[in-house]
Amino acid sequence: MKKNISASQIYIIMMFVLSLANSTMFTTYAIYYVTKLGLNPLELVLVGTVLELTVLIFEGITGVVADTYSRRLSVIIGMFILGVAFTLEGSILWITEWSTLIPAFIWLLISQVMFGIGWTFVSGSDSAWMVDEVGEDQAGPIFMRTKQIALIGTLLGIGISVGLSIVAPNLPYIMGGFMHLALGVFLILFMKETKFVKQEHEANTSPLKAMGKTWLMGAKVVQSNPLLLILIVVTLFSGAASEGFDRLKETFLINEIGFPQGIAFSMAVWFGIIAAVSTIIGIFAVGWTEKRIDMSSKRMISRAMFFLTGARIAAIVTLALSPNFTWAIIAVLAIKVIGIIQSPIYNTWLNMNVESKTRATVLSMVSQSDALGQTAGGPLVGWLGNRVSIRASLLAAAALLSPILVVFGNIWRKRS
């Protein structure tokens, strides 16, 4: 007889495993990409571009599937697609040794397309499912608790990634793929969907028409809600800013700042230390924040988003203007920890402003907007780095976040 596990426990387990798997794969991914697959800088950029374009194209479609038929089904499908995608990505080294008919880079792009499709099935559907099952009032504290536990998974994954990468650089991806597949099996056995209300359509309505109707309902929700409409537009800027920072921070530390010569650490060790320290600080920071913010209060959440966005802008500016290694590391850690704290608060705020029947669709639209910002704005920030300097790119990333600060400031003022 299977033991009943609550929806909140299922969600926490799911996020823990995803964080563990992602940290296992992505902590040392550059070693695999560069030293084994032999990717050049242009190919590295194209990999990210293909991923974001896939998300941009499929995010709206998969969100509609979740709202029309089942959030549970959407999440489970996504887990298996992700598992196959990452297992394929880790197997490219072996596939190309067996046959050189298809280049490694093409196999990598195929895996990125699968990665993007699988991610869009999960994105939005997982939180929409949890919020429906536990209720909006309980969702905020669960998001905060989940973040703390997920950070423990991230910390464990860093160690696993380094250990597996020493044996073979592709093994972290193989392990991450297996983790996603195992999680998919777990969700089939234990994930229940009791509160989801399937959209009613006429008996002779085709699946495409039913999905189209759900998408239009979601679009109307966004159109009729100025807050969501503004957020989707502003998310374009957020995506462009995050893409610029995420792609340039390592290069900035290596080329502009440099690592201390008196300490015999490799660059890989330094980046591992930065990831581990930011995760440990993040665990305590989320716990401290959870005790001081009423996650059921829209006013308090809006205020928190305003101050956290302002702090993130200040930290990025500090990084751009850092005169030495110490200032730069403090700024990088601050940016990472602020992002860790902001994530569950933002998820809570967003779900508070979306109706249940179109929740996954609207969340997917927001994610789509972020992908569009990363695809369109990221290269512009990178171009500025080539033409002027990486410091200029970081300052541009901070400037792109300023509209979000204005939005949350207005929301907080109105709620007050």
Q: Which features would summarize this protein structure in a list?
A:
15 helices; single chain; 0% strand; mainly alpha; 416 residues
Overview of the molecule:
- With 416 residues, this protein is mainly α.
- It contains 15 helices and no strands.
- The chain has helices at 7-26, 29-36, 41-68, 71-98, 104-122, 125-134, 136-167, 171-190, 207-224, 226-257, 267-292, 298-320, 325-352, 359-387, 390-415.
- The mean pLDDT is 80.
Summarize this structure briefly.
The chain is an all-alpha fold and 416 residues long. It has helices at residues 7-26, 29-36, 41-68, 71-98, 104-122, 125-134, 136-167, 171-190, 207-224, 226-257, 267-292, 298-320, 325-352, 359-387, 390-415. The longest helix is centred in the middle third of the chain and has 32 residues, at 136-167.
